[in-house]
Amino acid sequence: MEVNQVQRIGVFVCHCGTNIAATVDIKRVLEAAAKEPGVVHAEDYQYMCSEAGQQKVREAIKEKQLTGVVVCSCSPRMHENTFRGAAQKAGLNPYMVEIANIREHVSWIHKNIEEGTEKAIILTRAAIAKVMLNAPLQAGQSKVVKRALVIGGGIAGIQTALDIADAGYEVDIVEKTPSIGGRMSQLDKTFPTLDCSACILTPKMVDAAAHEKITIYTYSEVEKVSGFVGDFQVDIRKKARSVDMSKCTGCGVCQEKCPSKKIPNEFNRELDNRAAIYTPFAQAIPNVPVIDRENCIKFKTGKCGVCSKVCLAGAVDYEQQDEIVSQNYGAIVVATGFDTIKLDKYEEYSYQSCPDVITSLELERIMNAAGPTKGHLERLSDGKAPKSMVFIQCVGSRCADERGKSYCSKICCMYTAKHAMLIRDKYPDVDVTVFYIDVRTPGKNFDEFYRRAVEEYGVHYIKGQVGKVAEHNGRLLVQGADLIDNRRILMETDMVVLATAIEPNPDVRKIATMLTASIDTNNFLTESHAKLRPVESPTAGIFLSGVCQGPKDIPETVAQAGAAAIKVVGLLAKDYLVTNPCVAKSDELYCNGCSACEKVCPYGAISYEDREVNDHGIREVRRVASVNSALCQGCGACTVACPSGAMDLQGFSNRQILAEVDAICR
Amino acid sequence: MHKTEKDKAILLREMSGANVDKCMKCGKCSASCPSYDEMDIRPHQFVSYVQNEDVEALLESKSLWKCLSCFACVERCPRDVKPAMIIEAVRQMVVRQRGGNYLLPDEVPELLDEELPQQLLASAFRKYSK
Q1: In this prediction, does ipTM exceed 0.90?
Q2: Strand ranges (E), A537-628
Q3: Which residue of A103, A239, A349, A360 has the fewest C-beta atoms within 10 A of its own C-beta?
């Protein structure tokens, strides 16, 4: 093989404790590496990523005048930056470092030392072959727009926005519904302290609305996102509210007088009705109603206009149009929250057929003083007070089939204990039974809370999932089995409450697609690292807050919201970002102007321009590809699509890839 | 060939096609079972008995003849374990072990009838020969 004699390569093999050394014969890898042409230095160390290990790399670069470095260690996702930094400190261009991944790709997946060692040697050889062809690259810069976007105005979004704004940066919240507040605004009391949800949430909503750095777009949706970390361009659709926000005083007369009052009230989980012009709840922010145009008589028939007539402020505006707000953001936080799953596939619980079988979120509204029953616990079928209630846990959670979700919804054990306790406290004559599979209460003061339900409030906990709920003599018959006592349970009760599984808000899929943020099979947004980067999406500049990332309760959501905020602040505090120099580059002499690369580029980074080229003395204007290096993410799709070989990825050129393949096949 | 309890448990897993390891012990099968009170070993216990390779107890259980094969447990199991299939497999195992050899391979050619579905013959052979 022809070898560039100028190159002086150093190979550093890491043991990673026993992570690599137990499955790979380090000595043999070293010997094999040392024999490769161009390699002038080879050494091993127990933890190459440690300061002492990096010191070895730096010293060798200086002493042996290395021009390239190969580190045989873990995945480049883990420590490529570490070793690039070490090289830079020793005066070597950081892009002259290559990683041979002999941990994730070798030791962790192989058991046989012989096979593992052979593969480690081959991967090392490939990395050496590649680094021989590496060229020094210079990272560029891109500006950072000092403004953040938060998608979702629940407790997660509000907290994230407040924390970012308090650090001195502008934040916009985009909320789909007419008010911020989210799920938390629907809750009555919160565990484990039993304080009133509205009492702790409303001040935060007010703070967010009053904050000079926060702009809230309610009844609005993100429509289009382009750009990249540091400078996203976002179009926000402000849906026509049909009420002028600057004029409305929030007096509420329009809602009272509106003749169209039979519309299912989403805020009360459709347990009662609202008017066509409405604010979702009394503490709504902004306290400005919207007209639900699909159900408004004026919009349907052209006649009516009562709300406009009664509005003393003259705020009602039937002519209002949707408005598109275009804004640039340095970072975007997704805080889209959750909903409960649909229960139409769980016929055995009779949710569809019996009004007295309800979900836990419906019970929250029933218990709430502002709810459909004004806070009185009563059966929805006949308005009678129940004497007995049954709670069923894990409805749709921990399911292996398509009816439910595979995961534990995490919050149900605690809110069920809360409901049981509140009912026993307020209505001591109501008998409460909870059917559980496991009671899961990890969390500060959580198990104590559940034990209080049992020991102080006399809630009956029965181990065993319920088999069936059916209407019976005007009551409900619950069929189950007590797995501890090994006996059949057939009990009559007045109300059944289903701890329904939660799922990410269905809209999150659309948003994730716009943001090119990855999402798992359950529609939860994926974090960059499950343990070490839990609030960052793998897509740079996108951050995660709240249940959109995974099931969590309010304290966890607030903690994560703060974590997402500090990550955003860390980004916005920079004036410029270092860009990845491993971007595509087109050779104008080879480019035939076919547009194949432009069509496959997922980032819109390639455009065509007419440029004068000098092709071996022939000067002519040709239509050639041009790469915007700020937009290019270095995915390499264009290099594969290019039929003439004009497109190449810097740092991963076709020559380098082929050299690696040759080295592997040697 | 003498089969150990372990062999039988493995055989039961194969015959039933049920994956007992998916069970999360929620008991919804037993909760759904209309014959629950008639049974000495309950549907959810069938699953853990197979896991624990305690097959003899299952072979002697009167529950085998109380299960209605209504499949409510299969329908409602959140983990897709299929308890009724396990009970059916144990029943099969009992039937196969019972009595003598009523059907020998040599006798099969005589019994062949074009009208007869082959499946029937295969299943009869399974039931009536040891």
Answers
A1: no
A2: 542-544, 576-578, 584-586, 606-615, 618-627
A3: A239
